[in-house]
Amino acid sequence: MKIENFSFSKVFRILDRVNRLLVATVVLLGVFVFALPLLSSNDAQDYEVSPPSLPNDERQMDCSVIGTGPFALQEGENAFPLPGLKDELVFLGLSQRPDSEGALILGLNSSKTQVAIRDGQELFLDYLDGGVHFCQKEAPLKIVPFYDGVYLRCSVLLDLPEFSAAVEWKFKETKWLHPPQSPEIKEAIEALKFTQIFGPDQLLNLYGGESFAERKEKFRFCFGHDKLLIGVGDDLVWQDEKWKEASAVEDSSCCFLARVLSVNDERVQVELWSPGGLDAHVVTLNVTKEAPLQLKFDDIFTRIRKRTRTCVSCLVDQKSRLLRKGDWLEKRKTGWKTLRSIDELESCIQGLSEGELFVFDGVEKIGEQWVFLGHAFDQHHTHAVPVQLPLSAKAKSPPKERRSMYDFDDDDDFFDDDDDFLNTLIPGGDDDD
User: Fold this and answer.
1) Which of 3, 146, 227, 325 has its CA 20 to 30 A from that of 359?
2) CA dist 57 to 49, 53, 62, Å?
3) What value does the mean pLDDT take over residues 176-181?
């Protein structure tokens, strides 16, 4: 090759073109790099990415993750979805009621209602008519209280189908400035004050067997037709506008409770408790005084003659009777009535006697004389009076006149008499009235 034929101008032209091509490439790359985010943003606006569908196109949320991990609730009442609930709840103290001593008393400020529950017992609440109320049945909102001696700590749980939350609050004991006054307490106290109270039933004390052991020495509380046997330490419950024995009521926690503190022949002291167990009233009641028996039994029972060891014939208010040992005679408007049926005897035991009562104990030989024995009671069986009358002398029959009644041996010490006479009638006799 000849050197003189080589042209430097061609070389410079080629290098210039290559340089321009490189500059253009760099510019295009820069434009592409800056334009790429804009293109991606536009694509995101133009296209919506749908999540994969579940079978039958049913979408659901996993509620179990709420309250855990990144979904955990922060501590504090503002994190709970019902922030006003804490101001509604109040810890009123510990119950002093005998049947719920030590129970925790929780109240609601708006309604001034209160309830007694135990440590760890679930308490359900419900929203009704724009307010919160204690609920007897299970509800999504519940409280589980624990008392540490200073604070009442409540675990509050809300459990809905697609949402759940939990928080713990603590309360100090607080008293309401204006505690609610239930109109029922006045009715309950008035019912107690107008109660007729009688001393122990002397009929049960003298003749009651083992089945009546628990009823002996108890006082009778008469609430109209209802008669209750109550002793020291026994409880009464105010339900359905009347007092009942606590043992007859399934759940007495929501009722007024009265416990008998002391009894004597003149007064009965009763302590009355509100359903919550925070308020107590001591009521003093008077025992009804019964007049002593004024009956003259030697005028009532005349011409008494022994027939057997267990039976006598006599006149009762001038009416002939056969009395057997253990007979009960009740004084009525029409005269003395011998109680025979189970219903009559049961009515007498329940304190529903119409008048005085006499129980025939039989005859007994004291010294050289046979004696008619028994006990008499007033209408309410408060007083018992022993009755002891001598048997009438045996009338002598004319020597030639045959006796019209069956012969009995009245002067021996052996039970050898014939009871066939019980099938005969005494002339003019009337065994009932």
Assistant:
1) 227
2) 16, 5, 16
3) 72
